[in-house]
Design brief:
Length: 103
């Protein structure tokens, strides 16, 4: 599932990093994303930890967050009191529970 920058995202921190939103988390996760520059997977994105290849950078970011750092990041729904351990989980929640706030 795609978890781009959508309404309903708020806060996100790693061990008290601060509530500057997903930007801080994104910086942490992106250090593990490598763009493939040659071969059959040229132009795709690779997890720098396990080597998994994805066609979209966001999918690689979601993979790294959920597989290699499960529960490390916390995302708060700005429409209710719920919190989530992954940005994609928050995206699914907002789409299902807060449809009135979607574009």
């Amino acid at each position: 599932e795609y978890a781009g920058d959508h309404q309903g995202y708020e806060g996100g921190h790693v061990d008290g990093q601060g509530a500057d939103g997903t930007k801080g988390n994104k910086v942490i996760l992106q250090q593990f994303i490598e763009k493939v520059t040659d071969g059959v997977d040229k132009g795709k994105y690779k997890c720098g930890i396990c080597g998994k290849i994805n066609g979209q950078k966001i999918h690689t970011q979601n993979h790294i967050e959920s597989i290699h750092f499960p529960g490390t990041f916390v995302y708060n729904c700005k429409h209710c009191e719920m919190t989530f351990t992954g940005r994609n989980k928050l995206y699914i929640h907002v789409n299902q529970m807060h449809k009135e706030f979607q574009h």
